[in-house]
Write a structure and sequence with these properties.
The complex is a heterodimer of chains A (about 775) and B (about 180). Helices cover about 45% and strands about 15% of the residues of chain A. By secondary structure, chain A is of the alpha/beta class. Chain A has an eight-stranded mixed beta sheet, with helices on both faces. Helices cover about 35% and strands about 15% of the residues of chain B. The N and C termini of chain B lie far apart (about 30 Å). Chain B contains six helices and nine strands; from the N terminus they run βαβββαβαβαβαββα. Chain B has helices at about 25-35, 55-65, 75-80, 95-100, 125-135, 165-180, and strands at about 20, 35-40, 50, 55, 70, 90, 115-120, 140-145, 155. The radius of gyration of chain B is 15 Å and the shape is globular. In chain B, a hairpin with a 2-residue loop joins strand 3 and strand 4 (about 55). Classes of the chains: A alpha/beta (about 775), B alpha/beta (about 180). The interface of A and B includes residues 79, 641 and 685 of A.
């Protein structure tokens, strides 16, 4: 059915230019009242964006003084110069941010499209969506909020993806030379890209949860094995890596269908690993993306199967070094391999086993499964786990060839003392090299830079061999959505501030000082009775840590969405369950209208839900778009120091009182609400700084006095412990004396007196004049 | 290594690049001439060794012999306090940079804008970006990197130098400031 609406006026607002080619999804939507912005265009939420951007102004940190995107250029944009097209540096930086977010959103939406097409082909259009049975009635909170529709079947999701694809095309077109000229409008479009990204990810995850029967909002999802040491290398080993799980599932299904389970190890990295353990808890996870190179070089995998996203571009070359055939299974990542999709299985296997072809492109997940298993079984005895990690003797010999040119260190993203460690190795001492392992992100730029062609990454891996083999941990498999009943239970305490915050540790593994810092943050805040959510590589890093009893964080803390829980929602595309939880607090707990009602729900979340995203190792364009999806909802995001390379922060100024006024919805008065939350996007220099800021960014204007006192307690306590001093801005967050934590009363009163603090009222906060219930002049 | 090129090889700057501090007296002179100098100290100041002491110990002496306002970033405030030195304030590096960019900002004490900002002890790539932001959006502000690696987005920076050479330079700066 094709629907075209030029202008639709209702009591809720006006919808213009709505055009949809969809099945019965609209009729389903009509059962619930739809808000003012269903299927919003690139400009429909612009006013909301500008409200946020007024408070959180962009601070640009250009990576480059020039623009080289068209043949007018290069154009020097330094010191207020404009390029040949008229663009200035601020607009150029925001344009690059938009490009990054378009790449990220397109990647997730294309992922969702491939997945949904495959699942529709396999299970049919009419397969019912089910992400949590009766425990989850709001099955797609982001899609409902953004699109104003209620998808019920796999086929309905195709319609939602049509919308996402249209929007991304519009957004990308805005980056063309001679299009958008305002940095703030670019920023608004960045927010739009992030919102679309959240929809695309949600579609992908609810489709795979429903079709593959992944854990359905299960707080007690299985504890699965993670770490290098969990892989049984005496068996044939298949390594799967990437994000789109059907080919990995093809492998598990083939093993099951042919009674081969337990005879072949299926080990994964990155998000495919998350999703394969959601399908089969016996599958094993090696680790996050940064383990890719070291795992291949170890020679443990007999076959490497890659799908899409975050896969090393040299994975084929690396697999060839260890004589392991590689199967590419995604049209987005063909690696120059011959397309063997239509060839007979036996012919492909024969070519791979006999080394006639280094790999094959197979665009059929079931065929990938059969070829991978048969090849692994036949190749394993031949390869005998051939590896390219040099022996200790060869490391020492190689180290003696080092010319101390420091090119390795200068290439290392973390400035690790590689040259110094190699010098020690030349003396026969490998401890310094082994120490690098914990902070090495596995990029191997050191090797590329070495004029002596020393395999420096492999040196590190050999030196840290013992440490690596001891990597044996437990991670709770991704549970997917948060149950409606969990939201009902914690919605009140979160909105009132009595649960001090919801911390989402998400994103990639580009850490400044290793993944351990993620685990430490997770445990610190779980201990303090925050709700800690995890996803993606960060969820894995949070698992790779043991306490004094030898337990991983997921073994110590429950998986329920409640105070003190550490809740792994799953892979990258599971992130919308985190945004969805915040949205459901507004819709289920506070009973705000959900469908197509973006502004109001975002306003609610921004002013009331003390949620903070932390992407400590954010690396990719996808991480940028994921973050921007949270920004539009008014949820602040902290990144690690490498996140400064996204080249733009969204920073509040707590010293500018005029920036922090809200409407009191009860009266319409403009009321100073304090800098809560102070920033929308911000890069922390160290873990300690991030932890203090996490506690601070959880404060919201709506906190009750009891809730604010609890939040202040954590903020002050962390400041004292990590900074050795009381915060210098307490007076901005104390609204009435009842906000002051009793145990710190005397000390805080002194600070308040010194700062000239005056009591102020706690508003019913909103940034939207239309939500004022009674205007002052009417009273 | 005494070349004016970025420490991290791929961090290619330009067209506008920092002038090289060829003599430490240049820095001492700039600090003396500045009406409102500010020193921003990152967490690496408490980790980096210079000879027998930590960078932070040198910076405390530097602050004591000059009229510079000290801002600690990240958690380094704790190390200052432990050494009995109270910086003017502490805040994230992106926050102080965002304020320095603002032509209307009157400084931490409300007495006016800073005219010289010295940076030290921030992770190389992060300082690189912060200095880039200031170079592009705060053209009135002069910036100096006191780290031992070339920071091309500063107004002035040391080239990539050894620890020994660095210590030598820093000692001269403190001595010159002490002389008034």
């Amino acid at each position: 059915m094709h629907v075209k609406i030029d202008e639709l006026k209702s009591s809720l607002g006006t919808v213009k230019g709505l055009e949809l080619s969809i099945g019965n999804i609209i009729e389903k939507a009509m059962a619930e009242e739809v808000g003012p912005t269903p299927f919003p265009s690139t400009v429909d939420l612009r006013e909301w964006d500008f409200k946020l951007l007024e408070k959180y102004k962009p601070f640009y940190m250009p990576f480059c003084d020039v623009c080289c995107l068209c043949t007018f250029g290069k154009c020097d944009l330094s010191q207020s110069k404009r390029g040949a097209c008229g663009l200035d540096m601020a607009a150029q930086q925001s344009r690059i941010v938009l490009l990054a977010c378009c790449i990220g959103a397109a990647t997730h939406v294309a992922h969702a499209r491939h997945l949904v097409e495959h699942l529709v082909e396999k299970f049919g259009h009419d397969l019912k969506l089910d992400v949590g049975g009766v425990n989850v009635e709001v099955e797609a909170p982001v899609t409902r909020l953004v699109c104003g529709v209620k998808p019920e079947t796999l086929g309905d999701l195709e319609d939602v993806l049509d919308y996402c694809e249209t929007e991304i095309t519009h957004l990308l077109s805005a980056t063309h030379t001679g299009q958008e000229g305002s940095n703030l409008d670019f920023e608004s479009k960045v927010f739009h890209a992030g919102m679309i990204d959240q929809v695309g990810m949600e579609v992908a995850d609810i489709a795979q949860i429903s079709a593959y029967n992944f854990p359905k909002a299960d707080p007690d999802a299985s504890l699965v094995n993670i770490g290098w040491g969990v892989v049984d290398s005496t068996k044939p080993v298949i390594m799967v890596v990437g994000h789109n799980v059907p080919s990995a599932i093809g492998i598990v299904d083939y093993l099951q269908d042919n009674g081969l389970q337990g005879m072949v190890e299926v080990s994964g990295l990155c998000c495919t690993a998350h999703d394969i353990t959601r399908y089969d808890p016996k599958a094993k996870i090696v680790g996050p993306i940064s383990w890719q190179l070291r795992y291949i070089r170890s020679g443990v995998p007999d076959v490497v199967v890659v799908d899409e996203q975050c896969i090393r571009a040299d994975s084929l070359q690396e697999a060839q070094k260890i004589k392991a055939p590689l199967i590419a299974s995604s049209p987005k990542n063909c690696l120059g391999l011959k397309n063997r999709t239509q060839d007979p299985v036996e012919a492909i296997v024969s070519d791979l086993v006999n080394g006639k072809a280094p790999g094959a492109l197979i665009l059929d997940p079931e065929k990938v499964g059969e070829v991978a298993v048969k090849t692994a079984i036949l190749v394993a005895p031949k390869r005998k786990k051939f590896k390219v990690i040099p022996s200790v003797k060869d490391v020492i010999k190689g180290a003696k060839e080092c010319r101390k040119c420091y090119e390795c260190r200068r290439a290392c993203p973390n400035d690790l003392p590689i040259t110094e460690a190699v010098a020690e190795a030349a003396k026969g001492k490998l401890d310094a090299l082994a120490e690098l392992y914990d902070e090495c992100i596995g990029c191997a730029r050191c090797e590329s830079a070495c004029p002596q062609n020393l395999p420096l990454h492999s040196f590190i891996v050999r030196a840290a061999e013992k440490k690596m083999k001891g990597e044996i941990y437990k991670m709770r498999a991704g549970r997917g959505a948060i149950q409606d009943v969990e939201i009902r239970n914690v919605g009140g305490p979160i909105v009132l501030g009595e649960i001090p915050g919801v911390i989402a540790l998400v994103g990639c593994a580009n850490y400044p000082k290793g993944g351990k810092e993620v685990a430490e943050m997770a445990m610190e805040f779980a201990k303090r009775r925050y709700i800690v959510l995890t996803s993606g590589c960060a969820a894995m890093s949070a698992a790779m840590y043991k306490d004094e009893n030898g337990q991983s964080p997921y073994e110590v803390y429950p998986g329920s969405f409640d105070a003190g829980g550490i809740v792994n929602v799953g892979s990258c595309v599971s992130n919308p369950h985190i945004a969805g939880a915040a949205i459901k607090i507004a819709s289920i707990f506070a009973k705000r209208k959900l469908m197509g009602n973006y502004e109001e729900i975002a306003d609610y979340i921004h002013n009331r839900v003390g949620a903070v995203g932390v992407a400590w190792g954010a690396m990719s364009q996808k991480a940028a778009s994921i973050a921007s999806g949270f920004w539009r909802l008014g949820v602040p995001v902290i990144v690690g120091p490498h996140g400064s390379k996204y080249r733009r922060m969204l920073l509040g100024r707590k010293d500018r009182e005029e920036d922090w006024y809200v409407y009191d919805a009860r009266t319409g008065d403009r009321v100073y609400a304090g800098p809560a939350p102070e920033h929308l996007f911000y890069a922390a220099e160290t873990k300690e700084e991030a932890m203090v800021m996490i506690a601070k960014l959880c404060m919201r204007p709506n906190d009750t006095t009891k809730g604010r006192a609890i939040k202040l307690t954590h903020y002050i306590d962390l400041s004292r412990r990590l900074y050795g001093t009381m915060p210098d801005d307490i007076h901005l967050f104390v609204r009435t004396l009842a906000d002051v934590p009793i145990t710190m009363r005397d000390e805080i009163l002194k600070v308040l007196k010194k700062s000239g603090w005056k009591e102020r009222r706690v508003p019913d906060p909103t940034l939207l004049p239309r939500l004022i219930r009674k205007r002052k002049e009417e009273s | 290594m005494n070349r004016a090129e970025p420490w991290q090889t791929a961090e290619i700057p330009g067209p506008k690049k920092a002038l090289v501090i060829s003599k430490p007296e240049i820095v001492a002179g700039m600090v003396k001439r500045a009406k409102r100098p500010i020193l921003i100290v990152g967490h690496k100041a408490s980790e980096t060794e210079i000879g027998e002491e930590k960078m932070i110990d040198y910076l405390i002496r530097f602050a004591e012999v000059s009229n510079v306002t000290v801002v600690a970033t990240a958690h380094v405030v704790k190390e200052f306090v432990n050494r009995g030195f109270q910086p003017a304030t502490w805040m994230p590096i992106v926050d102080i940079a965002n304020r320095l960019k603002d032509a209307e900002w009157k400084g931490l004490d409300g007495k006016g804008r800073y005219d010289l900002a010295l940076f030290v002890g921030i992770p190389y790539y992060m300082e690189w970006l912060i200095l880039s932001g200031l170079k592009h959006f705060s053209s009135e502000l002069k910036t100096v990197s006191l780290d031992k690696h070339y920071q091309p987005h500063a107004s002035w920076s040391f080239p990539n130098i050894t620890v020994e050479k660095w210590k030598e330079n820093l000692d001269v700066i403190v001595d010159k400031l002490k002389q008034g």
